């Protein structure tokens, strides 16, 4: 029996995106009369996409598949960005398919050596769902001692929402947490029936109202690059650039590194933090086997 989970998710995604669009944004006239629904109506989306209202309604209700050309038109009509467009196609099964459950992820010894050699640069390897697969000592000093967290709970989104210290560590915790939720949404499109992902989303939705609200908004994002500001309890303010590299051996493994411009205050504070971490004997991840 085929699961309708992706189709239902696709319908919810379409509804959320049209609810956020103003008629004038897509070139439709607005009146002074209150609208019965937030954003665009179904018939307005259908009109802009040049499809029947019945066809579009069935898409939102998860009762039919959409063709790639129709998805492409809907992405333009709903003003989806590249991440959102990719997510839409994944939900419709037009870009990736999954025929078996993902196997347990392991970091290759070569990648572990890269981590260990980055003594002045915090770095972690994240897998599916944002699981923390490996890290170096400076990452433990920067974020948290990952070794004290049970392996099954060693997940970055989970840590962000359940560790109280994370809310003071991040200068803008809400934005960072929203990005984590959006990245998790992208994962859910690739592996909609992953039991650990379903369990994680259920747990966090029950524990945190903000997570539940943001999850329901259906925003998506890829792991790319960015800048974050941390208020570290040992060295103070750190303004860090982060970049993400994908492992060739496993495209679901991502190496994230945090760096600062040479000569900047943050660069100097990272050196101080590295010295402090060495004195504290904070453990990196165990060697890959």
UniProtKB/TrEMBL annotation:
Q: Output the superkingdom of the source species.
A: Bacteria
SUPFAM superfamilies linked: lambda repressor-like DNA-binding domains (SSF47413)
Q: Name one GO molecular function term.
A: DNA binding
Occurrences of domain HTH cro/C1-type (ranges): 35-85
SMART domains the UniProt entry points to: HTH_XRE
What the entry lists under Pfam families is as follows: HTH_31, MLTR_LBD
Matches recorded under PANTHER family = BLL4672 PROTEIN, BLL4672 PROTEIN-RELATED
What this protein is called in its record is Transcriptional regulator
Q: Which organism is it from?
A: Streptomyces lacrimifluminis
- What does UniProt list as this organism's lineage? Bacteria, Bacillati, Actinomycetota, Actinomycetes, Kitasatosporales
């Amino acid at each position: 029996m085929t699961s309708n989970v992706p189709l239902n998710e696709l319908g919810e995604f379409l509804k959320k995106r049209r609810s956020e669009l103003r008629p004038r944004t897509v070139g439709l006239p607005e009146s002074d009369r209150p609208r019965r629904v937030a954003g665009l109506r179904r018939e307005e989306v259908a009109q802009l996409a040049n499809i029947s209202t019945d066809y579009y309604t069935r898409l939102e209700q998860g009762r039919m598949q959409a063709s790639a050309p129709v998805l492409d038109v809907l992405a333009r009509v709903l003003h989806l960005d590249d991440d959102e467009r990719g997510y839409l196609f994944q939900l419709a099964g037009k870009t990736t398919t999954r025929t078996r459950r993902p196997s347990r992820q392991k970091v290759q010894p070569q990648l572990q050596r890269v981590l260990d050699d980055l003594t002045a640069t915090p770095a972690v390897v994240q897998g599916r769902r944002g699981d923390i697969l490996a890290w170096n000592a400076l990452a433990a000093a920067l974020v948290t001692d990952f070794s004290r967290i049970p392996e099954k709970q060693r997940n970055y989104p989970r840590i962000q929402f359940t560790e109280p210290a994370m809310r003071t560590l991040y200068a803008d915790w809400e934005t960072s947490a929203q990005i984590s939720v959006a990245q998790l949404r992208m994962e859910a499109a690739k592996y909609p029936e992953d039991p650990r992902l379903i369990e994680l989303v259920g747990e966090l939705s029950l524990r945190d109202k903000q997570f539940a609200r943001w999850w329901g908004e259906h925003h998506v994002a890829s792991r790319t690059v960015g800048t974050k500001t941390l208020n570290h309890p040992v060295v103070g303010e750190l303004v860090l650039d982060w970049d993400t590299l994908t492992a060739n051996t496993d495209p679901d493994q991502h190496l994230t590194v945090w760096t600062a411009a040479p000569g900047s205050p943050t660069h100097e504070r990272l050196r101080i933090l590295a010295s402090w971490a060495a004195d504290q004997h904070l453990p990196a991840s165990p060697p890959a086997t």
